[in-house]
Amino acid sequence: MCGFFGVIGSDNPACQEIYEALVCLQHRGQDAAGIVTHDERFHLKKGNGLVRDVFRMKNMERLIGSAGIGQVRYPTFGASNTEDAQPFVVNYPYGIAMAHNGNVTNGDEITSWLSQQKRTILHSSCDVELILFTLAVELSEIGGLEPDHEAVFKALEQVLERVKGAYSVTALIARLGMVAFRDPHGIRPLVMGYRDNADGSRSWACASENIPLEIQGYSGIENVNAGEAVIFIPGQDPIRRQLVKSAHNPCIFEHVYFARPDSVLDEVSVYESRRQLGRNLGESWKKLNLNADVVIPVPDSACTAASTMADTIGVEYREGLVKNRYIGRTFIMPGQTARTSGVRRKLNAIRSEFEGKDVLLVDDSVVRGTTSRQIVELARAAGARKVFFASCSPPVQFPCVYGVDMSTRAELIACEKTEKQIAEAIGADAMIYQTVEGLREAIKSSGSDLHYCAACFDGKYPTPDVTASTLSCIEAHRLGEQKRIAESHTADAHG
Ligand code: SF4
Q1: Which residue is catalytic, options 2, 15, 453, 456?
Q2: Region 107-122: what's the mean pLDDT?
Q3: How much of the chain exceeds pLDDT 90, in percent?
Q4: Cα 1 to ligand 1 centre (Å)
Q5: Is the CB of 253 under 6 A from ligand 1?
Q6: Which of 4, 190, 271, 405 could disulfide-pair with 261, CB 3.0 to 4.6 Å?
Q7: What's the chain look like in SS3?
Q8: pLDDT above 80 for 488
Q9: According to CATH, where is 3.40.50.2020 located in the chain?
Q10: Confidence band, pLDDT 50/70/90 cuts, at residue 446
Q11: Which of 187, 258, 270, 402 has most ligand 1 atoms within 8 Å of CB, for mutation?
């Protein structure tokens, strides 16, 4: 999961808008950040860390131009090298800069096509490079020296045909304009909008969520559709084209965890979805015949659902856990060591809300169970008599191959355990989960008839290329990455 923002035709320096947008999208990735702008040429700055840590005034002064794109990265395979930070730029045969959110599932195939048939040398392990080089190669074969928008659409058709997986992308093509496109299943979100400039011209922007557009005065905010590409040329209305027709299967986990609660994704309010998730959990709780004195959310993404769950069961909602907002989300920190120590640094308990009480904790999800166990320990250390644990999402039983680091099946606590065994493993007195049907119903009741991807819960991957054998390959690749990272940490410790 990453976040990006692209802008063209702005009457502000593009880098300022992009910086504001990336701060707004920081929840989507805290591992690295980057901005590239364009005037006569590209100006790039990227690095590891939070947006506020990567960019200094001297960097911003150098990022000139009224068009640009930026990205905050969450490492897909645990990679956290500076070379993997986005955007990426290619200078030949055309100047193209690109940033994305997602994951390519046939990376090995694209890599060998690029290297063996097109003599391309890749510089990183980041899969946006695969999309970027595929576009550059296709465009050079279709577009001649000065490709127009028709050539770009044709080249993008080839990209969507060749590259499998989940990806929302924005790119700048020098001397043409900005492009935004979404994979044929529209798994990762992508919106666009416009703002009227003082001189009567229009500035256009695209982003992973609507909020960075809203807060910067953009209107007419709408989706880029699954399999659609949009080309923004300064001084013209955007040119839109449906390149591939396919089922639209957006990621359902965006509504539980990733997106900001004030976001609207594919015309569904994340806040309303989360309210319904809490009501569902409340109804399930009533059937268990258990009593809680207080409902306490694990901040921040579970707060909305916890409040409606508390209402539904008639128990007080109390904010008994306090989050240090200046520490990165542990789920998106690379490496198990950082994850383990991060929870205690991030959360603290208000003792009076726990002491002598039967506490119902509500969290957005339980992935490996490591974080949940530490939170239960925290509640007990604060004096809770009983600790019940509710998960706003269903049991996570399958890895995500579409850009969310959910590791391998063996590491997922719900993969082979019952709810009772999971409760024991995390030290809770009882465990309660959302059902997959309840999750789908919550989105539907908030206004969508789309068939969402819920593969990490039900194992039904919407892209046909993901089979049992590709899953095993992807898992083997991840295990290799984890081993490499563990070895590099050991080497660092001894270095
Ligand atoms: Fe989202 Fe899960 Fe599908 Fe990944 S597998 S895209 S996290 S719903």
Answers
A1: 2
A2: 92
A3: 79
A4: 10
A5: yes
A6: 271
A7: CCEEEEEECCCCCHHHHHHHHHHHCHHHCCCEEEEEEECCCEEEEEEECCHHHHCCHHHHHHCCCCEEEEEEECCCCCCCCHHHCCCEEECCCCCEEEEEEEEECCHHHHHHHHHHHCCCCCCCCCCHHHHHHHHHHHHHHHHCCCCCHHHHHHHHHHHHHHCCEEEEEEEEECCCEEEEEECCCCCCCCEEEEEECCCCCEEEEEECCCHHHHCCCCEEEEECCCCEEEEECCCCCCEEEECCCCCCCCECHHHHHHCCCCCEECCEEHHHHHHHHHHHHHHHHHCCCCCCCEEEECCCCCHHHHHHHHHHHCCEECCCEEECCCCCCHHHCCCHHHHHHHHHHHEEECHHHHCCCEEEEEECCCCCCHHHHHHHHHHHHCCCCEEEEEECCCCCCCCCCCCCCCCCHHHCCCCCCCHHHHHHHHCCCEEEECCHHHHHHHHHHCCCCCCCECHHHHCCCCCCCCCHHHHHHHHHHHHHHHHHHHHHHHHHHHC
A8: no
A9: 278-449
A10: confident
A11: 402
Q: What are the residue ranges of CATH 3.60.20.10 in the chain?
A: 3-248
Distance of CA 376 from the midpoint of ligand 1 (Å): 26
The confidence band for 495, taking pLDDT boundaries of 50, 70 and 90, is: very low
Query: What's the CATH number of domain 3-248, 3.30.300.30, 3.60.15.10, 3.60.20.10, 3.40.640.10?
Result: 3.60.20.10
Q: Tell me: the pLDDT tens digits for 26-37? A: 999 999 999 999
455 lines ligand 1 (CB under 6 A): yes
Instruction: Check pocket membership of 8 for ligand 1, CB cut-off 6 A.
Output: no
415: annotated active-site residue: no
CATH fold for domain 278-449: Rossmann fold (3.40.50)
Establish whether residue 402 lines the binding site of ligand 1, counting it when its CB lies within 6 angstroms of any ligand atom: yes
